[in-house]
Design goal:
Elements lengths: L1 H24 L10 H20 L1 H40 L3
Helix pairs in contact: 1-2
């Protein structure tokens, strides 16, 4: 998960540098007044999202498989705990009932 996040941040940083250069060279328009930095950040986010979606597809699939495995293990552990609680409850009921 950390690897995917770092790769995503790297793509964003690359887009930020490219957009920053394009804005200051006049290829992209500048923002109004003090909003120029926000404009550059917004353009970098808009450009990096589809690039990340395409470029990081394999890494995203790998992460999702890992997360799905963890969720399945947690569900199995939860079900095992529930069945142990049911057995313990049945035993306590059987001990309380007079013979």
């Amino acid at each position: 998960m950390l690897r995917y996040t770092l790769m995503r941040l790297g793509i964003f940083a690359g887009c930020l540098v490219v957009v920053w250069g394009a804005v200051y060279s006049g290829i992209f328009p500048r923002g109004f007044g003090d909003s120029n930095f926000l404009w550059v950040l917004l353009l970098a986010m808009v450009l990096s999202a589809p690039i990340s979606f395409v470029v990081l597809r394999k890494e995203r699939d790998r992460v999702s498989v890992r997360i799905a495995g963890k969720v399945d293990r947690m569900k199995a552990n939860l079900e095992a705990n529930r069945s142990q609680e049911d057995v313990a409850e049945d035993d306590s009921r059987a001990q309380r009932q007079p013979s």
